[in-house]
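Troubleshooting: if your tokenizer reports a length mismatch, compare against these two reference records.
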Amino acid sequence: MPGGLLLGDEAPNFEANTTVGRIRFHDFLGDSWGILFSHPRDFTPVCTTELGRAAKLAPEFAKRNVKLIALSIDSVEDHLAWSKDINAYNCEEPTEKLPFPIIDDRNRDLAILLGMLDPAEKDEKGMPVTARVVGDSVMVLPTIPEEEAKKLFPKGVFTKDLPSGKKYLRYTPQP
């Protein structure tokens, strides 16, 4: 499937390890519609907020017979630890349980099968990169040291406290 999926195509019936155990995609969906959304890495700021929003909206999707499932390139163990941060971001109890599973795609086999990666867009390590639009606040890259961030963003840098203790969820008002 070199070009990935097109409208009207049936999604492949892949098998994968997830935060709820091993699944076969079509069996997981049953007679439901499905939304499979992909994220490049666990414990990253934008992905955390996006999965947090998906968790908040999950009951609305369930009312419409739609199952959600996420894909990320890290291990199930990382996904479970990250789930605590996602729930904490939502001001919920920081448990490992989300209202949807996260697929372990550490070899990127599934992302490649589904045509989710643009082979031409890679970073200096040869990893695929993503692009997103900007909302109200903007994320501050976790790689920018604290002192440099204070100089770069005079409106202030705000860090969300998370169960993992990692300080990666930082943001500043839109410049």
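Reference record two:
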Amino acid sequence: MSALKRVQQWATFARIWHIYDATWQNPFDSAQLLKKYLMGLYKPIYHPMNDCGDHVILINSADIALPGNEWQKRVYFHHTGYPGGASWTLAWDLHTKDPTMIMRKAVYNGMDGNLQRRYTMQRLHIFPDANVPNELLGNVSNQIRQIRPVPKRLDHYSEEEVQTAPKVIDYPKDYVVR
């Protein structure tokens, strides 16, 4: 085998490092997107019994957005294995205890039916904020695009942008805000 073909084969089977920003993203939609990269579904060499997935660094998992009133309604089940060890935790409570757990559970459950999902999850590196060790950031070569755009917060607009924005209503001068 020539040196060029050998390098081409190494590049085909190499694990790529991706980074994904979970700010304002639905964890269940994000899980379906991340599953493709973790399992290697987008690669032409993919086979269900072939472990060709990539590494994914997920940042800002503390800023995820669940749809509707899922924070109050969604319940996560855990059992210790001992009698009476069953517990149900609401999503907001689980998120305050561990801001990475909802994303971890969403991605794990998104790979339903995959026999290798325990080993595949070892390539998912979740961080609650943007503080990622430099050893991991040095490996990143691709950024996964967010599913939905992140809106700009009101306090991030400059005073000039606020003044030039069209007004919806002009309040009367004697209007009192309570």
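Descriptive notes for reference record two:
- The longest helix spans residues 27-39.
- The first strand starts at residue 17 and ends at 21.
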